Structure of Efflux transporter outer membrane subunit:
Amino acid sequence: MGLVGGGRRAARQRVPGDLSVSGSDEISERYDASVGLTSYEIDFFAKTRNLSAAALENYLATAQAKRSFQTSLISEVANTYFSWRTNRKQLALARATQRSFEQNLALIQRRYDSDVASALELTQAETLVHQVRTQVAQFDRLVRQAVNALAFFSGHNLPEGMTSSLPESPPLNIAPLGAGLSSDLLKRRPDILEAEHRLKAAYADIGAARAAFFPSITLTASAGTASSELNELFDGGSGSWLFEPRINLPIFTGGRNKANLEVSETTKKIRLAEYNRAIQQAFREVADSLAARDTLWDQLNAQQALVDTLDEYYQLAQNRYDAGITSYLAVLDAQREHFSARQQLLSDRFNQLSAEIELFRSLGGGVGSEIARVDRSRAQ
């Protein structure tokens, strides 16, 4: 290979047996070639093998960081899509309600002009119209921003009419979670694998590190809810991490190779701290996701029951007004509460979908085939 404007240097060095990895005398050959600010080093013996192993682990850590980014990107795109879908429904609801409120206002205005309706009823009707108009503008803006976000994620403008052809209710391909889901599943999370590769680059024994820092528990109880073992990892008052690592285990292979001596104690402590933090974050995110998933289902069911009740309440108020039993203020109040409850129901549905997406992300991205694989490995 020709090098323009560069220099070359070759050297041979004898390494005494008490300093070599093999325990016997070695001859190390070194060849440097440089052009400008770039230097290429070729070491044919033990040092290169050790450095290559560390470099490989650092590369694999980078690959896991990329996978972590991809999982987060998938989650963000899905969340943005459901946000767009929810805001479209909110906009349609607000526009329909606006038309209804404006019809009420016109009716009350005529009754007020005929001295049948009160000024209070007229003012209340006007207030409802102004409020719903602001919400129409708000949801129109949110729909447009969601479309812009989807275009940003795709890397180009969405084709004309594409958003109107997107399915309103795509299936969520997330496997249902049964009881007894092992925490071993979290070992495939990209951030934990990245931290493990960083540890390996510092010549750590990953088996010992896992035994010291990784809680071996079940994540789920019946019906896929969070297990008591998972909840007990965190203090109920402060939410702090309660798992005690077994710090007496020999994690780093001290003295086994010369390259390990070149890894500073500070680097080892940093890599261990990063690994411990990644594990804590993984378990906390899963616990939070399962808690949100469980409680949001309850909230969604309760909100649906509230909407059904307020729908009946609105009809009763309208009937009482038609019969001359009550004023139109009762009808306006019932209509406003019914509209507000339907809005909240749409928001709760979006939050429930977001919780499913967050659970997908916190479990490392995709659970179906991976759960089966982890279960098979445990049975072997």
